[in-house]
Amino acid sequence: MELDELVPIAAGTERSVYQHPYEPNLLVKVVNRQNFAETMDKHPWRRLIKTLFQREGAYSAYIHELSEYAAAYNAAAGRWQIPMARVVGLAETSQGLGLLVEKISDGEGGLAPTVEEMVKREGHLAPELARELAFFFDSLADHHIILNDISARNIVMGENAQGKSGLYLIDGFGSKQAVPIYALSKSLNRRRIQRKVDAMIVRLKARAARAARANRAI
Can you give the pTM of this predicted structure? Predict the structure, then answer.
């Protein structure tokens, strides 16, 4: 798959995201080699771990996500109601191995906004959104989804490929623990999720308050 002539529509710390050139409902995530190398330079212990224990190298995140998606599909027992973007598979691209994922859209062909963007735009965490987030994370915990990065940047509000609207997890899932205690214990995983969510809500409210003060000062 040729991606070199395309412009990324989103980017994370170590990966770039492209619109699939042929399928409007799919995105392609690829490793940004330069960013990945810079991250490894900043964290030599991560480079050592990947060298000694992770033969997948830069693609280890794909393994975590594919494994968690398979576990999620099994937990769904044939009735997919889990609020996360589907993982479709892998593809060879001009920028290395790509992970194909479901696109959560804004209903007009663009990317759905993240919760972080919504709170920043509105200047506060709306009570209705807070309730939806509580239900969203409760659903993930019910299905025993392992989250490795609980962040408002990894949650979007939009439509999936079937046109169903709501909050969706787009990144930050999969077990990374050497001893997968949260994968082994649903109750421990639920408590961890709640603890991390509480911290995320505090950060969101603080960020919104700072933005509101800055707007009043203008």
Answer: 0.90
Tell me if 195 sits within 8 A of 169, measured CB to CB.
Answer: no
Q: Give the whole-angstrom CA distance, residue 60 versus residue 57.
A: 6
CATH number, position 61: 1.10.510
Residue 51 tokens, joined: 């060298």
**172-191 per-position pLDDT tens digit:** 999 888 788 999 999 999 99
Is residue 1 situated within a structural domain? no
**With the CA atoms of 139, 141, 143 and 145 taken in that order, what torsion angle do they form, in degrees rounded to the nearest 10?**
120
Domain that holds residue 42: 10-217
The per-residue pLDDT for range 13-38, each reduced to its tens digit, is 889 999 999 999 999 999 987 776 77
Residue 118 lies in a domain: yes
CA dihedral 56, 177, 146, 162 (to 10 degrees): -10
**Which three-class secondary structure state does DSSP give residue 175?**
coil
CA proximity to 88, closest of 22, 4, 132: 22
Q: With contact defined as beta carbons under 8 Å apart, do 86 and 23 qualify?
A: no
Q: What is the 3-state secondary structure (H, E, C) of 107-160?
A: CCCCECCEHHHHHHHHCCCCHHHHHHHHHHHHHHHHCCCCECCCCHHHEEEEEC
| Total tally of structural domains belonging to the chain | 1
